[in-house]
Amino acid sequence: MVSQLVVGVFLLCGTLFQPLQVAAFKPLFQGGSLTHREITELAILRKTAEVCRDIATAQGRDFTLPDFYSHSNWVELGSTAPFSTLIKPELPLNNTAGPSTPTCKSCTGSNCSDNILPEILLQKKLTSGYFSVISSTKPAGKCSHGGSADKTSSREPTGGINKDDIDSDHGFLHLRAAEMAINATVEVLQDIRLATGNQAFLRLVGLSQTSVLAFVIDTTSSMSDDIEEAKRVSFSIIDSRRGTPEEPTEYILVPFNDPEIQLYRDLAHVSGGQTIEVTKDTLSQATAVITDASTSALVTVLQVVRRPVIAENVSFVLDPSLSNVTVYITGESPVFTIYSPTGVSQSGSVSDGPLGSILTVGNLRRVKLYSGNQTGEWKISIVSTRSYSLKVTGRNATLFVSVTGGDSVTVTDVLLVEASGSAVVNGTIKSLGATDFLVNIDRIPEWAFVVQMKGVLNDLTRSLPSPFQRQSPTQQQGSRITITVQPSSTIEPGIPFIVNFTLVTNATGGSYTIRAWTDHGFIVSFPHFLDMGTGGSAQGSVTLTAPSDTESGTDVTLTIEAEDSETGDSNYMALRFIVMTKVTDFSSPVCQVVSIKADCPVECSRASWELCANLTDGNGSRAGSCGQGGKCGHMFCLCKEPFYNC
After folding, report:
1. Three-point CA angle 568, 420, 510, nearest 5°
2. Which stretches are annotated as coiled coil (predicted)?
3. Full residue range of the structural domain in which residue 218 is found
4. Which of 286, 463, 512, 624 lies 20 to 30 Å from 151 when distance is taken between CA atoms?
């Protein structure tokens, strides 16, 4: 939805250059009227406010600013605009009801439409409702929040004033309060926008993607003649991005003088990038490729690396939301042919064919597919005597896809695909609602992998759904180390507690560094190294000691980490414990009733009762008394006196 909104912005801005139309909002300033641009800006702010509210509601979190309009009497006072003082801390809050000023009367049955006192409304006094899930205590005459969870709403004055939903005590004002809350949030977002600027604001609310562009340049003496050309190309790329939506947030320069470039090949591949090897003469030709490949609006459809080499047919799916689809093939000797969904083919040796244009720069072939009907399953047949990589990208202007889904998207497959092989692990998808999906994976690939997602785009503008495919640009690597611990839940203050653990790996031998710590800084002792035996496992233990003065009920997390000293592979286990003081008193307390005075008619609220009792504990660790109250019932008050006598 957000990405579609961005497209709308650009389309509306485009109308600024069209002739004025009579039956439409005017595109240019019209003496106080709202223009296309202003309406679009307000729409973005308004929709962002709605999204913020919906996300907070879905995640069960408070969205403080809108809550003011639901929980206070600002709407009941007849206000038609947001209370701007809330977002301006330099302004005082005037005309609020004092601590002892009555603000409400009891509701008439379930009708709370007029429970705010007339003098409060007449004097425009600002107030809110008390709320507690534990106690019914509140100052005399004060309003309550209301609802079944609010204990204060059962005490005079009864009822509440919240407008959280249409069924609330003041639910008849829910829509007005929601409208006011959205407008107030728009004010906040507008202030942020004016303070940060348009580009920063769009990045803040996720309507503009950003990227970081790194230049890795060989600075060895043999490259001295080529460095100037590399600098020229780098400056050209930077200048072409300056002030545009494609301008990266950061540039990184990495000089190196290591003749082995394999490290940078691996780094580029793991991060979803590519390594283009060019000479000084062809460096300028790489500028266009670098510019295309580093565009922030790109999505990765497919990326694979083949090492060792195999001849195969690779398929990928293009959906209608993609444009500017580009295929990158890097390697010294790949021979390939591309096949469209309709069966049309083009050889990699044809620079301008029926499917696209092919540019060769150094070890890279860039295939830019022609625009048109690209929807469907494409295939690439590749034969190579050396290792190669294949990457398919496109611009996605109208579809935002993530594992958490979208209203117009049906996710059918989530796969873990080995980055340098063909092994695939299929996940089981469980829908958690209209927009969320839970994917269960029974195992993780042994080697580096990427996450690939397939599904169906339910586009209302098309008669039939369209398949789509996306892939994470970065690789993931599952750990080959497993830590298992015998579960235990409680520890005693001041008493050392031993946690035994087992370290297992499918690697052969090796030394592993062990680390252990707690989130409370408790004393821990453990072996700093473990040598893996031929069986692929080793035993260790961590001794954990909570200080003797640790409060009973304290929650503590112990983390045990193991790292392969050679490969850097690591894993950890987090254990949660409760510090509990040892219980020595197993005798139940004794309550002896001394006297009872009670008169409980049918209407209990008008009756009173009195109970006197002795409540004793055998060792005097806890005792208490029963008292009196204004309603029929029971009340217990605990104290630390060994004996209480009414």
Report:
1. 25
2. none
3. 210-294
4. 624
What is the pLDDT at residue 321? 72
Q: What pLDDT, in 10s, does the model give residues 509-560?
A: 788 999 999 988 899 999 999 988 777 788 899 999 999 999 887 888 899 9
Quick one: 3 and 97 in the same domain? yes
Instruction: Output the CA torsion 517→519→520→521 (10° steps).
Output: 30
Q: Which tokens sit at 531?
A: 């040598």
DSSP 466-512: EEEEEE-SS-B---SEEEEE----EE-BTS-EEEEEEEEESS-S-EE
Instruction: Judge whether residue 177 has pLDDT over 70.
Output: yes
Q: How many CB atoms lie within 10 A of CB 541?
A: 13
What number of helices (H) and strands (E) belong to the chain?
A: 9, 31
Rounded CA-CA distance 304/450 in Å is: 9
- For residues 218 and 190, membership in a common domain is answered with no
Nearest 5°: the CA angle 641, 643, 644 is: 95
Give the N- to C-terminal CA distance of the chain in Å, as an integer: 68
Task: Tell me: pLDDT of 400 over 50.
Answer: no
Per DSSP (E only), the strands in 220-321 are 250-256, 298-306, 312-318
Compute the mean pLDDT over every residue in the chain, rounded to the nearest whole number. Answer: 76
Same domain, residue pair 513 and 564: yes
Query: In 495-527, which positions are buried (b, 16+ CB within 10 angstroms) versus exposed (e)?
Result: eebebebebbbeeeebebebebebeeebebebe
Q: What is the pLDDT of residue 156?
A: 94
- Same domain? For 529 and 610 the reply is no
Answer whether 505's CB lies under 8 Å from 481's CB.
yes
- Which pTM does this prediction carry? 0.44
Q: What is the bridge-based pairing of β-strands 335-339 and 376-383?
A: antiparallel
Tell me the backbone φ, ψ of residue 153, rounded to 5 degrees: -75, -10
For 31-59, what is the mean pLDDT?
51
Give the percent of the chain with pLDDT over 90: 23
Residue 438 contacts residue 387 (beta carbons within 8 Å): no
Tokens read off for 35: 């223009």
Is residue 224 one of the residues assigned to a domain? yes
**45-50: long-range contacts, CB 8 A cutoff, minimum separation 24:** 45/186, 45/189, 45/190, 45/193, 46/182, 46/186, 47/1, 47/2, 47/5, 48/189, 48/205, 49/182, 49/185, 49/186, 49/189, 50/182
- Which tokens sit at 397? 């202007």
Distance CA 12, CA 41 (A): 10
pLDDT tens string 326-341: 999 988 878 999 999 9
The runs of H, that is alpha helices, within 370-446 are none
Taking only the tens place, the pLDDT of each residue in 245-289 is: 677 777 888 787 765 666 767 777 677 677 777 777 777 777 777
530 and 499 in one domain? yes
In three-state secondary structure terms, 536 is: coil
Task: Identify whether the C-beta of residue 450 lies closer than 8 Å to the C-beta of residue 302.
Answer: no
